Structure formats: structure tokens, C-alpha cells
Amino acid sequence: MVQTVAVPIAAPRPPCYDAQVNGARGPTVSIVIPCYNEEVNLRAGCLAHVASYAAQADDIAEILVVDDGSADASRDLVASLAATHGKLRLLAEPHRGKAGAVIAGILAARGSYVLFTDMDQATPIAELDKLRPYVQQGYDVIVGSRKGRRAGAPLVRRLMATGFILLRRLILDLGEVTDTQCGFKTLKTDVARAVCQRLRIFRPGVQHASGAAVTAGFDAELLFVARRMGARSVEVPVTWQYVGTRRVHPLRESWRGLKGLLLIRGAAARGEYDGAPALSSATQASSQTEAVGPSERPRAAAPPS
């Protein structure tokens, strides 16, 4: 049984969202946040900011925090915050790794779309406002992209990110997607579930990592399968700020990412993705990913009066 505890008051922080939230009504969105030993970020107020943003946005149906078997006070802190925020739900799961937590959130989501984002809010939740026009246009997959901008990231992390992009392009065809690893993606919920059922490396219900891990291959396989199924996709620039952590080792995660890409390529060569059912005719209009620049971005609808 989860024990409810009082959430300590964190030091004041500038809000991570614009006070003028876009309240345009449209398809509902479930926000999925994987959580593994996130006590530091929870006490810093990251989830509280997301909950405050969601309370002002009519189209956000819920925030699903998927706890991946945390060993710290994360579950208690989330449960305590959920008691005062009606849209916030805690989904307690066994430890499977980040990919397993995201998949569990997708399967439990109630909204028409599912957005998965990180607890540290390296991409602030307010960046959803840049994705909303494409949600309203009915895109199947909307990929938040840093477009090469990694503010605050150490040089070694930027070099490793560039190397991963080059290797990914050589190994997997993801169309025009340039950034698979920005933790800010939105998919139609039914499309996301259909894609998850076709995953071969990061299968639902299987432990994919032990401890804190990025599991870069999961995002790549998700987008790879979606493309093969004819998903209508778009890549949209979003703001991103480096958040340092000692929980994830860059070299180890780079190797895991490369290994994931090779496993996906091998599964594809063996025909394991063949025969994937195409998405409905409404989503087959374009299987090409569209890259959007800031000047091309449609204007978001104004908040309701």
C-alpha cells in the first residue's frame, strides 16, 4: 500500500510554463511521465508545475505518472500530489526500464492523444502549445525536436548526440526525422497502441533495462514501426535545456543506443516487421515525415474567453 506523505515545500522556482495557457478545445491529451527514483525532481517542483499547467488546459485529460519500481520516495510524493490535483494519476509498475514505463502509460491512457515527456522537464510542458496545431490537424505522430540546439549540454554530450544521429541514419530509415531522442513526443493513442503491439525489441511487458537508463533504441523502434505502418508524422522544433544528472552514464547509454539500433536493423532484416497492418485510410495520406521550421508553424488557437 502506498503511504501518503506531505510534499516538502521546494524553494521558489520560476514557472516552467507560460501563465497564458492555450485553452483551445480539441482532441484530449494524456500526458505520460515515466518515473524512476525521481525524488530530487519531484521535491524541486517539476511535477507540480506540470499539474498546474494541466489544470488550466481544457484539452489535457490526465497526467499519468508511471512509477517504474522506484526505490526512493517517488511513489509517496506523487501520491501526495495526486491528492490535491484531480488530473494526476499514479500508475505503480514493476521495474522494466523507461521503455516499459512509457508503454504502460500508453496502454492506460484515456485521452485521444498521448504525450510522453520527462520528469526533469528539460522540454517544458508549455511546449505542448507548439504541438497542438498538429494534434488538431489529425497527425498520427508529432515528434518534438531540438533541431541541433542543446542549450547547456557539455561538449562531450553534444558530440555523442551528433554521433548517434549519424549512426542512426546509416542503420535505420526514419525519413526526415533528425532527433529521435528528444523526450517530447505525441501520438494518437490508438496508433501508439497499434505500434507498441508491433515492437520486437522493446516488447510490452518485458524488462528492457535495470536501473536508470535512457533506452534510446525504444524511441527509434517506435518511430521505425510507425513509419512502416504508414503513420502521418511531423517533426516540430521545441525548446530544450540540458538538465545534468549523475544517474545515467553517457558512454554506457551510447552503447545501449547503438546496440538497440543494430537489434532493430537485424529484426527488420529477418522480416520481423513485415506484414504490419497499415493504419486506417485516414492516416495513410502521407507516410513521409514533414519537418517544420519555426516560420512555417501554424498559429495555435487563441485561449477561449
Calculate the mean pLDDT score and round it. 82
Topology-level CATH name:
Spore Coat Polysaccharide Biosynthesis Protein SpsA, Chain A
CATH superfamily: Spore Coat Polysaccharide Biosynthesis Protein SpsA, Chain A
Strand element count: 8
Largest sheet features:
8 strands, mixed
Short description:
With 305 residues, the protein is of the alpha/beta class. 34% of the residues lie in helices and 15% in strands. The radius of gyration is 18 Å and the shape is globular.
What does this protein structure show overall?
- 34% of the residues lie in helices and 15% in strands.
- It is of the alpha/beta class and 305 residues long.
- It has a single domain, classed as Spore Coat Polysaccharide Biosynthesis Protein SpsA, Chain A, CATH 3.90.550.
- The protein has an eight-stranded mixed sheet, with helices on both faces.
- Helix 6 packs parallel to helix 9 and helix 8 runs parallel beside helix 9.
- It is globular and about 50 Å long.
Explain the layout of strands and helices.
Layout: E1 29-35, H1 39-43, H2 46-56, E2 60-68, H3 74-82, E3 88-93, H4 98-108, E4 113-117, H5 128-136, E5 141-145, H6 155-171, E6 184-188, H7 189-198, H8 216-228, E7 233-237, H9 250-269, E8 289-291
Parallel strand pairs: 1-2, 1-4, 2-3, 5-7, 7-8
Antiparallel strand pairs: 4-6, 5-6
Helix pairs in contact: 6-9, 8-9
